[in-house]
Design brief:
The protein has 147 residues and is mainly β. It has one helix and ten strands.
């Protein structure tokens, strides 16, 4: 699970990106979490294959493919017109996969491809709006250590 600090960034591509290998240096990114209060990645349970034979005393199994991974975040935006908020809503409405990158203060990062599967249409309170956003990750999360 990724843990964000105040200086962490959550970036999303403004355009479709189906695979990490499709990401180029020219891809336009937007910081979608100007003030995220939480972000978590939940790696799903792996599926298993029954490998029990007639000679076994008890059921046997082998781990197969990893399960689906999801992510969720609670974010604060300046208004409903905030470009980050509108970008998240547009990503949900298009149903296209996007490139995401979590950038940590030490320079490390985690990259993945995901769909925005849900978002809240938030009410503005005082100077900010709070929105919950959920993602379904496609493929493996790529981790790069700092340094």
């Amino acid at each position: 699970m990724a843990t964000l600090s105040a200086k962490s960034k959550i970036q999303m591509s403004k355009t479709k990106c189906d695979k990490l290998s499709d990401k180029t240096e020219e891809i336009e990114l937007i910081n979608i979490a100007c003030d995220a209060s939480s972000f978590s990645v939940e790696v799903g349970e792996s599926t298993s294959i029954d490998s029990t034979t007639l000679d076994d005393d008890a059921p046997q199994s082998e781990v197969a493919f990893p399960g689906d991974s999801t992510a969720s975040a609670t974010m604060f935006y300046s208004s409903k017109a905030d470009s980050a908020y509108t970008a998240v809503r547009a990503a949900h409405e298009s149903a296209e996969k996007r490139y995401f990158c979590l950038v940590f203060p030490d320079g490390g990062k985690e990259e993945f491809i995901a769909n925005v599967t849900s978002h809240s249409i938030a009410l503005q309170t005082k100077e900010a709006i709070s929105a919950n956003v959920s993602f379904k990750i496609s493929g493996k999360v790529k981790k790069t250590n700092a340094g």
